[in-house]
Amino acid sequence: MMRLFPLTLSLSLMAGAAMAEDIKVGVSPGEHAEIMEEVAKIAAPAGLNIDVVEFSDYVVPNQALADGDIQANSFQHVPYLDNQVKDRGFDLVPVATTITTPMGLYSDDLSSVEDLPDGATIGIPNDPTNGGRALLVLQQLGLITLAEGTGLTPTVLDLAENPKNLRFRELDAAQLPRSLPDVDAALINTNYAIASGLNPRTDSIAMESADNPYVNVIVVRNGDQDAPWVQQLIDAYHSDEVKAFIEEKYDGTVLTSW
Known about the structure:
The chain is of the alpha/beta class. The chain is 33% helix and 24% strand.
């Protein structure tokens, strides 16, 4: 059965239809992978064939992009990218914003933040940007106070006040959903929550404010940002069809940036 696409595709998408281009885009599991599959459907009639490649952690997609194994990735927010560029020397650049996914606090045993006992163990990501983000969420919730001047990358050494004497278990972000039986609560990125079967809206006991600096981006190698396929990829992602898919599927737990 032939699928008919509405005539709302941008002119740059249509202009690319005459010359087919094959690219690989790295994503993390969950919403980033699911959305990119929809993007691929929109881009294909214009001649941009997207092979969606899933990676199970946050480090490999940037290495794969830097090595030329993929042409773009879509899984990370700007603070994480900035930290990767600084620490690993990647020559990578963001070319478009995508979505924001508020981090959630989850627990197998507790139904509210107020139920956290003194001395509770909290699981947080072990990478600097997402670990810092988790601590900022706990501060937002009134559970801790961080020292001034720590910016977006505080660590557990930067606690100024910890009235509940919370303890922290730092784990790979992808492993945090599995850690829930072993901790009192864990701060989990939305993509890993969704991939593990958690519903951010109904299963979290608290959510990060939507007003946060962690907007996700499409990233390419420096020098590729003006390639025609990059604009095709952006136009397909920022299409009305993809926006409607996100709003319908995620019911407010994933927010579009355009």
